[in-house]
Amino acid sequence: MSVEQPLWRALTAYRVLTMLYAVALFVAAHDDFARPWVAVGYFSVLAVWTLATLPKVAGAASCTKRFLAVDLAVALTGILLTRAADAAERISDGGPTLPSIWTAGAVLAFAIKGGWRWAAFASLLVGVANVVQRGAFSRDTVHNVLLVCIASIAIGYVVEVARASERTLARALEIEAATRERERLARDIHDSVLQVLAMVQRRGTALGGEAAELGKLAGEQEVALRSLVAGGLAPASRVSEDTARGALVRVVEEPDDLADEAAAPRDLRTLLTPYAGAQVTLSEPGAPVPLAPRAARELAAAVGAALDNVRRHAGPGARAWILVEDEPDAVVVTVRDDGPGIPEGRLAQAEGEGRLGVALSIRGRLRDIGGTAELISVPGQGTEVELRVPRDARGRTAQR
Q1: CATH code matching the domain that covers 234-399, chosen among 3.40.50.1820, 3.40.50.10490, 3.20.20.80, 3.30.565.10
Q2: Cβ pair 243, 181 in contact under 8 A
Q3: Is 248 helix (H, G, I), strand (E, B) or coil?
Q4: What angle do CA 37, 48, 105 make, to 5 degrees?
Q5: pLDDT in tens, 50-77
Q6: Residues lower than pLDDT 50 in the chain
Q7: How many CB atoms lie under 10 A from the CB of residue 112?
Q8: Domain coordinates in residue numbering, the chain
Q9: What pLDDT, in 10s, does the model give residues 159-178?
């Protein structure tokens, strides 16, 4: 049930009771009226209008702007008709207007429907009408107008706060429901799909041949699915075997808005998670690692190039480790493998032969975004590539 619904029900009862109260005041003092027939005509219209429009004040959907305008016009008309119906002595002595406190119901409808700003607008019109009806400012008039104005604005503000709280609560309930559904799906996936993929990997490795390749793919998909279930970080991806190069190729489908340099910072973890697999271990912080979109993409591409070198030069059985460090002034990603290492002078020789994998795919990418790439390799002890991107990489990228 809506938080404001009880207010609408209270307003419905208030309009009926105050209409009866205004009629009772007239009946008790009808002999003192200069033109009682004017008051009788107005109260007839007021009674019909109040009873006929009860469904209109049953909720925010039915209480339209047109209804609020006509309802306030009925109240203002009653205030101004008081000079024509009542005696001048009663008006000067502070006698009530024809609608009396029924007018506050019209103002409260504005407050509940539109908040405190609508309430202030309606209260201002009521105050002007009361001053015109009295012909001058008086203490009673100012007191009554201020009372209605403050009460309606306060109620309008409370309604706005209640609506904001209701939206926050609804969002929290949606998140809780989504979390519970995610946990249920994670349990189902763990009990079925992940176990099947693990079994295919074990059986394929044991059988060898083409079954071993199938088991390898199943192991890759198991790791990716576990990452998705655990943190929801891996975007949509697909895996295929590049038979020409003998390497595992993973294509990650990224949103189009990543190409926009003005986009919000990108969590680097979402781009590195697809690289994790049976032979690649990814260690990352538990919190997001934000970087400018282009810097995050180029850094992830450099990591991919480093892993390609591991597969190409360290052999199919080599393992690799990716370590992500989120420092205050920079983001550091280290890629290490347990391969045979790179002989001294081999990188310079490869660059001279036109093989620019490390020079362009790794160092070139980092240089374009204002970062650095350091390669350390000891023959027989593997290779380590340290990629460092400063926090201001976004500004340098835009300048370039």
Answers
A1: 3.30.565.10
A2: no
A3: strand
A4: 100
A5: 999 999 988 888 899 999 999 999 999 9
A6: 1, 233-260, 352-357, 394-400
A7: 23
A8: 5-169, 234-399
A9: 888 888 888 888 888 888 88
Which pTM does this prediction carry?
Answer: 0.48
Look at residues 317, 297, 282, 319 and name the one whose alpha carbon lies nearest to residue 368.
Answer: 297
The percentage of the chain sitting over the pLDDT mark of 90, rounded to a whole number, equals 20
Cβ-contact 91, 83 below 8 angstroms:
yes
| Token code pair at residue 342 | 């790179």
84, two tokens: 């024509």
Q: What is the maximum alpha-carbon separation in the chain?
A: 116
In the numeric block, which tokens belong to residue 277? 């697999």
The closest of 78, 77, 167, 71 to 111, measured between CA atoms, is: 71
Contacts of 262 (CB under 8 A, 6+ apart): none
Residue 371 CB-half CA count within 13 A: 31
Encoding tokens for residue 22?
């205004």
Count of all residues that appear for the chain in the document: 400
Q: What angle do CA 230, 232, 233 make, to 5 degrees?
A: 110
